[in-house]
C-alpha cells in the first residue's frame, strides 16, 4: 500500500503488479513511488540520476557515480535575471513550507489562541510600519501559533506577500538562499554571493522566520542584506540577543494566566472541570508557569481518563461481560489494571503532579503500539519524527501513518518547519523510561537503510529527499557517533544516495553535512573508494563556495586515494577540478610533479603515485583544517634535522634544484681532484699518451705495483708524508665516495689487461716499498649496474692483481681508509665531464 495514493488496488490482490510490470514492494514511499524493496520478484537496476545546475560562474553536473564535474559556465548556459513568482506560486510555496496534515480519526483540530490578543495586535502594527520583530519565549509558550496568526493578518502588507522560513539548524547563508528560492523562480540556479545579495536586496516581503538559532552579527547580516523586508522572528531565551544597532524590536512572550489555563483545559476536554480537576489544574499552573504546552498535554491526560472511566461504566452496564476483565484497545496489555482504573477497578484517579509535570511516559502508555514505536524511532533520530508516509515501513504496521495524529493530539509532537519533531522536554522524559531508550542504534540503522532505498528510487524527486533532511542527517549522526565499523556501511550508502539529492534540491548545508558524515563513516569502515568520492565532492563544494584552499586540499586527498586504487575515471575528474582550482587561485601545478593522476613526460598518466607528502598527510591536514602543506626533512651540516615547509609546485622545484646542486658539487670535487698535480712523485711512470723506452733495461717499462681493488693512494709530499686528496661526502653514489687520484697530465689514467705494448707480466713491487694492506671488500652496490661508462682514453681495473692505474703511487704511504673502486671513480669523473 502506498499511503499517499490509496486506490482500489490496495485491496485487490490481482492488481499487486505495478503498471510498469515490477512488483509492488515495501510501504513508506513518501515520494509517491512504490518501491521494489521487500518484493519477491526481480529488481531492475537503479538508474544513476545526474542533475546539471548553474552555481555562480560554474556549470555543476551532480554525478552520483564518479563524482560531480565542474567547469566554467558557457556564456549561453548562464540563466538571465530570475523572474518573481506569482500569487499562486507563492501560495504553493507557503503550503509546502507547512508540515503535512495528520491523518486518522485522532487528528486534532486547530488549537485556539488564548490571551495573546495584545501581542498579536502589537506585532501586526510593527510589521505594517516596516519594523522587524523578534518574539522571545521558552519552548512550549505558543510562539509558533502566535506567528501563524500574525502571518494571516499580514498577508497583504508587502508586494511579495508572506514568506515562511524555518531557522531550525539553518545558517544565515541557508536562510538567504531559501528566501531567494521562495520569491524568485530560478530552478537549477544557485547564484553566487554577489548575485544573491543583489537579488534579495530587492525583495519586499514579510518573512516569518521560526525557531532561529543564531543572533548577534549573524542576524545583522540578514537584516542588512534585506532592507525592504520586515522579519517576524521567534527564538528561545538561550539564543544570542540581537546587537543594539540592529533596530530589532523585542517582544517577550510570558505564560498564560491561571484562569486562561483552566479555560484551555476545559476546551481540550470539551466539558467543565470538576472541583478536583480545577484544583489539580491550579497546582499544574504554578509548577509550569503557565506554559500552554503543559495544559495541552494535561488535557490529553484528562481525555484518556474520561475514556477509561467511560469504558469501565460500559463494562458494568453490560453484565453479560461481567466475568471478563475490560481492557481498552489503546491500553497496553502489559500495563497493570490499577494504573488506569484504580484499586477498585471503577474509577481512574487523577494523575499526580509529578506525572502531570512529565506526562510523556504516561501518555505514551495509553496510545497504540504504532504510536509508541513512532516515539521510539523519533527518539533514536534525535527527536526528528519521520514523515507519516514512512511510518508503515519503519514500524511494520499498515496503519502506522495515523500515529502522527495521535501524538499531535497528546502534545508529544510539535511542528518545526515542514516536518514534526518531539515537543520540548519529551525526549528527556522518554529516555528516563526504560521502554523507550533501548535499541536506539538498531532503529537508527533501520531508518538509514530505509531512507537509502527510498532516496535512491528513480521516482523520488530531490525536493522530497530534501524535505526529510533532518531525519536522514539524524540517522547518519547517531550511527557515526557510535563508531562501530559494522554500522558505518549503512551511513556510507545513505550518504552516497542522499547527498546528490541535497545538492540538486539546493540544500547545500545538508549536502555538506551528509558528505562529512559519509567521509567519516567510510574512513572508519575502511572503504577507500567511498572515502575518495566524499573528498572529491567536498572539494567541488568548496570550489563552488569560493574556498579555494579547502578545495585544493580535498581534491588532492581524493586524487591520492583514487590513484592508489587505479581509478582512472575518478582521477581524471579530480584532476579537472583541481586544474580549475589552480586557475582560479592563480597558481600552476609544478612541472615534473608525480602527484597521482598527473601527466608524465612520456604523455601517460601516473595513477599509482601519491600526492606530495602522502595521502595520509593530506588527510591529516584536512582534519586540522589547515592549508595544504608538506613537511620535508633536509639534512644539513649541523647535527639534527631541519624541516622545511613546502607545498605543491614549490616542493617539486626545490627538489629538482637540490638534485642539480648535488651534481654540481660532485662534479666540482672530481674535477678539482683531476686537476691537482703530483709534483713530488717519481717521473719514470708510464702515463696516458706516452710510450715506453725500448732501451730501458727492464724491457722499457717501469710499472707500479698493481693496486688492490678498493685501495686508494694519495700523492706523496716531500718528506714522506701523504697529501690529502679531494673527497666526496659519504652517502652519494650508493656507497662510500671515492677519492680522486690526479695525474701529471691533468686526467686520470687507467689500464686494462692487454693495453700495454709489453705483454710480459707486471714488475713485482720493490722490496723497499712496504706492501699495502688489503682493504675490506666493498659490499655489493644496490644499483642494478655495477659499472659506469668511463671517459675516452681511460680504463678501469677489474680485479686485484691485474694492471691498474699507471699513475697510482700505492707504495708512497699507507692505503687510504676510504675504500673505493675504480668504477666509482669513473662514475664521478663521468658526471664531472660535462660540467668542466
Question: Which labels suit this protein?
Answer:
836 residues; alpha/beta; Rossmann fold; 5-stranded parallel β-sheet; 8% strand
Describe the structure in your own words.
It is a single chain. The chain has 836 residues and is α/β, with parallel strands linked by helices. 40% of the residues lie in helices and 8% in strands. It is built from 27 helices and 15 strands. The strands form 5 sheets. It has a 5-stranded parallel sheet with strand order 6-9-10-5-11, sandwiched between helices. β9, α6 (217-225) and β10 form a beta-alpha-beta unit. The termini are far apart.
- What structural class is derived from the secondary structure elements? alpha/beta
User: What spatial form do the alpha-carbon principal axes imply?
Assistant: globular
Strand content: 5-15%
Cα-atom radius of gyration? 42 Å
Strand order of the largest sheet: 6-9-10-5-11
Q: Uncertain runs with pLDDT below 50, 5 residues or more?
A: 1-46, 315-345, 590-610, 626-649, 677-836
Work out the helicity level: 40-55%
Largest sheet features: 5 strands, parallel
The tally of helices reads 27
How many beta strands in the DSSP annotation?
Answer: 15
The whole-number mean of residue pLDDT values reads 73
Distance between the termini: 88 Å
Care to give the gist of this entry?
This protein has 27 helices and 15 strands.
List the helices and strands and how they pair.
Blueprint lengths: L50 E5 L2 E5 L6 E4 L10 E2 L2 H10 L20 H12 L4 E4 L6 H11 L8 E5 L5 H12 E2 L3 E2 L2 H9 L4 E5 L6 H9 L4 E6 L13 E4 L5 H12 L5 H14 L3 H26 L20 H4 L11 H5 L2 H6 L3 H12 L10 H5 L7 H7 L3 E4 L2 E4 L3 H7 L7 H16 L6 H6 L1 H14 L2 H21 L2 H18 L2 H17 L3 H17 L3 H18 L29 H10 L5 E6 L5 E6 L2 H27 L146 H11 L4
Parallel strand pairs: 1-8, 5-10, 5-11, 6-9, 9-10
Antiparallel strand pairs: 1-2, 2-3, 4-7, 12-13, 14-15
Amino acid at each position: 500500500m502506498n499511503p499517499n495514493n490509496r486506490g482500489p488496488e490496495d485491496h485487490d490482490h490481482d492488481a499487486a503488479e505495478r503498471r510498469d510490470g515490477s512488483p509492488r514492494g515495501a510501504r513508506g514511499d513518501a515520494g509517491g513511488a512504490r518501491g521494489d524493496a521487500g518484493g519477491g520478484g526481480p529488481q531492475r537496476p537503479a538508474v544513476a540520476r545526474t542533475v546539471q545546475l548553474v552555481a555562480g560562474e560554474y556549470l555543476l553536473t551532480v554525478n552520483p557515480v564518479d563524482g560531480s564535474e565542474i567547469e566554467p559556465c558557457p556564456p549561453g548556459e548562464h540563466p538571465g535575471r530570475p523572474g518573481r513568482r506569482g500569487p499562486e506560486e507563492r501560495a504553493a510555496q507557503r503550503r509546502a513550507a507547512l508540515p503535512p496534515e495528520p491523518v486518522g480519526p485522532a487528528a486534532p483540530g486547530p488549537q485556539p489562541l488564548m490571551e495573546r490578543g495584545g501581542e498579536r495586535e502589537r506585532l501586526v502594527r510593527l510589521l505594517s510600519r516596516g519594523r522587524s520583530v523578534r518574539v522571545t519565549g521558552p519552548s512550549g509558550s505558543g510562539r509558533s501559533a502566535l506567528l501563524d496568526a500574525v502571518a494571516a493578518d499580514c498577508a497583504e502588507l508587502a508586494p511579495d506577500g508572506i514568506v515562511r522560513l524555518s531557522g531550525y539548524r539553518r545558517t544565515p547563508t541557508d536562510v538567504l538562499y531559501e528566501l531567494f528560492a521562495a520569491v524568485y523562480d530560478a530552478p537549477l540556479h544557485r547564484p553566487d554571493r554577489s548575485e544573491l545579495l543583489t537579488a534579495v536586496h530587492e525583495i519586499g516581503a514579510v518573512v516569518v522566520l521560526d525557531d532561529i538559532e543564531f543572533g548577534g552579527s549573524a542576524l545583522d547580516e540578514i537584516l542588512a542584506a534585506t532592507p525592504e523586508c520586515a522579519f517576524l522572528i521567534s527564538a528561545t531565551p538561550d539564543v544570542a540577543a540581537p546587537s543594539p544597532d540592529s533596530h530589532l524590536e523585542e517582544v517577550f512572550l510570558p505564560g498564560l494566566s491561571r484562569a486562561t489555563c483552566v479555560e484551555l483545559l476545559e476546551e481540550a476536554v470539551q466539558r467543565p472541570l470538576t472541583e478536583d480537576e480545577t484544583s489539580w489544574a491550579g497546582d499544574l499552573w504554578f509548577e509550569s508557569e503557565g506554559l500552554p504546552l503543559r495544559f495541552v498535554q494535561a488535557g490529553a491526560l484528562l481525555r484518556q481518563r474520561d475514556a477509561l472511566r467511560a469504558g469501565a461504566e460500559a463494562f458494568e452496564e453490560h453484565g453479560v461481560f461481567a466475568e471478563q476483565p475490560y481492557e481498552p484497545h489503546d491500553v497496553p496489555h502489559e500495563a497493570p489494571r490499577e494504573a488506569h482504573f484504580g484499586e477498585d477497578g471503577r474509577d481512574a484517579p487523577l494523575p499526580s503532579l509529578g506525572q502531570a509535570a512529565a506526562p510523556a511516559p504516561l501518555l505514551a502508555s495509553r496510545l497504540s503500539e504504532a504510536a509508541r514505536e513512532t516515539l521510539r524511532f523519533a527518539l533514536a533520530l534525535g527527536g526528528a519524527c519521520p514523515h507519516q508516509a514512512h511510518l508503515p515501513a519503519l514500524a511494520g504496521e499498515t496503519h502506522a501513518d495515523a500515529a502522527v495524529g495521535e501524538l499531535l493530539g497528546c502534545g508529544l509532537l510539535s511542528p518545526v518547519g515542514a516536518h514534526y519533531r518531539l515537543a520540548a522536554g519529551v525526549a528527556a522524559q522518554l529516555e528516563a523510561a526504560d521502554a523507550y531508550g533501548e535499541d536506539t542504534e538498531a532503529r537508527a540503522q533501520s531508518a538509514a537503510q530505509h531512507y537509502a532505498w527510498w532516496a535512491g528510487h528513480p521516482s523520488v524527486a530531490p525536493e522530497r529527499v530534501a524535505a526529510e533532511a533532518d531525519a536522514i542527517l539524524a540517522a547518519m549522526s547517531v550511527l557515526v557517533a557510535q563508531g562501530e565499523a559494522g554500522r558505518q556501511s549503512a551511513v556510507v550508502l545513505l550518504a552516497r544516495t542522499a547527498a546528490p539529492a541535497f545538492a540538486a534540491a539546493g540544500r547545500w548545508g545538508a549536502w555538506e553535512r551528509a558528505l562529512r558524515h559519509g567521509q567519516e563513516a567510510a574512513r572508519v569502515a575502511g572503504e577507500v573508494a567511498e572515502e575518495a568520492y566524499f573528498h572529491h565532492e567536498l572539494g567541488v563544494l568548496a570550489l563552488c563556495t569560493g574556498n579555494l584552499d579547502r578545495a585544493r586540499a580535498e581534491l588532492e586527498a581524493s586524487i591520492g586515494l583514487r590513484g592508489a586504487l587505479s581509478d582512472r575515471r575518478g582521477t581524471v575528474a579530480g584532476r579537472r577540478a583541481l586544474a580549475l582550482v589552480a586557475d582560479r587561485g592563480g597558481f600552476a601545478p609544478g612541472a615534473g610533479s608525480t602527484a597521482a593522476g598527473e601527466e608524465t613526460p612520456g604523455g601517460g598518466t601516473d595513477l599509482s603515485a601519491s600526492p606530495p607528502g602522502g595521502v595520509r598527510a593530506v588527510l591529516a591536514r584536512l582534519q586540522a583544517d589547515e592549508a595544504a602543506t608538506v613537511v620535508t626533512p633536509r639534512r644539513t651540516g649541523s647535527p639534527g634535522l631541519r624541516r622545511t615547509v613546502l607545498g605543491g609546485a614549490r616542493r617539486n622545484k626545490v627538489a629538482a634544484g637540490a638534485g642539480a646542486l648535488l651534481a654540481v658539487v660532485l662534479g666540482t670535487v672530481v674535477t678539482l681532484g683531476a686537476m691537482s698535480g703530483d709534483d713530488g712523485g717519481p717521473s719514470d711512470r708510464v702515463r696516458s699518451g706516452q710510450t715506453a723506452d725500448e732501451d730501458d733495461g727492464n724491457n722499457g717499462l717501469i710499472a707500479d705495483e698493481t693496486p688492490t681493488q678498493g685501495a686508494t693512494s694519495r700523492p706523496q709530499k716531500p718528506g714522506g708524508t701523504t697529501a690529502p686528496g679531494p673527497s666526496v661526502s659519504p652517502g652519494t653514489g650508493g656507497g662510500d665516495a671515492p677519492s680522486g687520484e690526479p695525474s701529471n697530465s691533468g686526467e686520470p689514467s687507467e689500464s686494462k689487461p692487454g693495453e700495454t705494448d709489453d705483454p710480459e707480466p707486471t714488475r713485482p713491487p720493490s722490496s723497499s716499498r712496504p706492501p699495502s694492506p688489503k682493504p675490506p671488500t666493498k659490499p655489493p652496490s644496490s644499483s642494478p649496474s655495477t659499472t659506469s661508462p668511463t671517459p675516452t682514453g681511460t680504463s678501469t681495473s677489474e680485479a686485484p692483481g691485474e694492471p691498474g692505474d699507471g699513475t697510482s703511487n700505492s707504495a708512497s704511504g699507507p692505503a687510504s681508509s676510504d675504500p673505493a673502486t675504480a668504477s666509482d671513480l669513473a662514475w664521478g669523473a663521468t658526471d664531472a665531464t660535462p660540467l668542466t
